[in-house]
Amino acid sequence: MLKRILNISLAYVGVVIGAGLSSGQDLMQYFVSFGKWGIIGTIVLGIISVVFGKIIITLGSYFRSNDHSEVLSQIAGPITNKILDIALIVSCFVVGLVMIAGAGSNLNQQFGLPFWAGGLLCATLIIIVSFLDFEKITGVLGIFTPIVFIMIIIIAVHTFTNRSFDFDELEAISATIPSPMPNVWISLLNYFALAVMTAVPMAFVLGGSIMRIGVAEKSGILGGLGVSIIITVVTCVLYANVKLASTVDMPMLAIAEQIHPIFSLIYAFVIYGLIFNTAFSLFYALAKRFSSDNPKRFYPILIGTVVIGYALSFMGFKELVSIMYPILGYIGFVMLAILTIAWIKEKSNIKGEKFLRRKMIRLITKKYDDNQDYTIKDKEKFHQLGEDSIVDTQSIKSDIKDLVKEKFNDDTR
């Protein structure tokens, strides 16, 4: 169970911290541009991130969603559902192509490779990895998260050890950084709303892969905490190095170069991995959405959208961040409101479903445990609980049986 929580939480962090956050570009525009107040803003953002991390993953588990529309259709009215569905589709595609652009910028800045080469490699990897089974995909999404966390801590220690800072100079340089936001409070809300818009499609799918709601809750909290720590630490590092960071597309990569060339090389690959994580999650969720009624269309849709995204990525990474992110963030305000209302309305039902699934798991465990008797009464109770579940009766019964059988198979190996 602990392994499952870690896998999902790391995958969630990997989905959220894409090219902008791990490279530092969006944090420069959203927070560092406001100086010390921007750092305070990231702390507030961190608290919000933990709360909504739990909400998003848990709602996905509660509704056992395969794509975001399955959750939205349950928590929003028909008109709002349609608006948010369209907004998420646009968000997946736009931020996906921004990630591909970030892949091009990353390898261009570090290795001098042509912009088109880095983007093409990222697009190709998205298509290849999509052919793996979902458990392996979850592992791929989370693999770079602990690495980038360690590397960011190393950068932070290097930045703040045995150095003094002229805060007046840092404030003055920060003030020259253009920001798409009028003040830090709107900035933090817009940034988080954007993060939700980009994370929700895949986060619902991640949550939908979890049967135990308690596991989903813990995964969301841990994932949200990971995101909040990384955002705050990276913003502090960027602020302390703002003179250098304000002059490049990939500021964290430029700061890493000050430590050691080999460290910088590794960090470039890690950023590239995180760019891929987010890009893959967005295009994967987009293809899932459009193929929900016909799974055979999944791969043609995914390949087609990735190819179009790659073609449009030549608009440029920095420019795309400054233009598209604020627009999507404002649309995300509606999503935050809907998620909050849904959580308040469904909280007692989620708690009931949580205990219902526990009872079903305990009952069906008797069937596969040689030391227990699975009676006719147990079978009838199991079926009745399945009918009481918010999920389709046959689906919930089948999934719980598979979960328990898998556990027994693992125990006997």
Automatic annotation (TrEMBL):
InterPro entries: YkvI-like (IPR038728). Keywords: Membrane, Transmembrane, Transmembrane helix. The chain crosses the membrane at residues 40-63, 83-103, 115-132, 139-160, 188-208, 220-242, 262-286, 298-317, 323-344. This is Branched-chain amino acid transport protein. It comes from Oribacterium sinus F0268. The lineage of its organism: Bacteria, Bacillati, Bacillota, Clostridia, Lachnospirales.
